[in-house]
Amino acid sequence: MIPLLTDENVRASIIRALLQERPELDLVRVGEVGLRATEDPLILDWAAEHGCVLLTHDRQTMTDYAYQRMRNQQETPGVIVLDDQASPGDLVPDLLHAVEESSPEHLRNRVLFLPY
Prior knowledge:
Elements: E1 4-6, H1 12-21, E2 27-29, H2 40-50, E3 53-56, H3 61-71, E4 79-82, H4 88-100, H5 104-107, E5 111-114
Parallel strand pairs: 1-2, 1-3, 3-4, 4-5
């Protein structure tokens, strides 16, 4: 299963719903790895270094930095942008499908927006 890193802006209700549905998920929050209040480029660096796909609600700066990394030919972890207005019930099925039916290689250098 693809390891996931959740940005600090990901709602706790989404994380709870994910872990309730799939307790075996390899999921870590930025605060658990010492990245709380860290700038987005450093979070992307950490995710790339540790092979994690990043989950975020940040459509603006995080995606800008991800695209900038791609333009600079830097390895970019997959970034999955979750609609901050969507309910966990709308997000979790699509998110689980994305991480269970894909591989880290498939998501690398991609930005996905969920729900589909």
